[in-house]
Amino acid sequence: VRKLPKDEWPAIIDKYLVMVDLKDHRHKFPAQLSGGMRQRLQIARNLVTRPRLVLMDEPTSGLDVSVQAKLLDLIRLLVARMHLSALIVTHDLGVARLLAHRTLVMREGRIVEQGLTDRVLDDPQHAYTQLLVSSVVAP
Q1: Rounded CA separation 111/119 (Å)
Q2: CATH classification at residue 40
Q3: CA atoms within 13 A on the CB side of 130
Q4: Less packed terminus of the chain by CB within 10 Å, N or C?
Q5: pTM of the model
Q6: Burial letters for 20-37: b for 16+ Cβ neighbours within 10 Å, e otherwise?
Q7: What is the pLDDT of residues 48-75, one digit of tens each?
């Protein structure tokens, strides 16, 4: 944004706040926003640079389940709409299943299994991946 004339900044900021459903909160400080709103604000701040790749570390951590669902829907929409690649670090296999086409399972800093997410989670080959998958409580 800084490379653009200052008179264009408000329109660009509004565009990205609309994308993450925060247009009505433009003049608030982050401390005045809920956890989910702060996550969406951070997403907008990152997207304004028009990246091709975004890194998300535990994007739903600390959020209520209903807020998590809305945030995951938003992430999926933005990744598709903006043709983004996303690298998502998560311990939540549900998040991995919703957002990732491919999954890498790491243990002690080493990759123990990788592949298409559905295959890795539905038919895990490595003992550690099997343990992770079996520890998830089915809904």
Answers
A1: 16
A2: 3.40.50.300
A3: 4
A4: C
A5: 0.83
A6: bebeebeeeeeeeeeebb
A7: 989 999 999 999 998 999 899 999 999 9
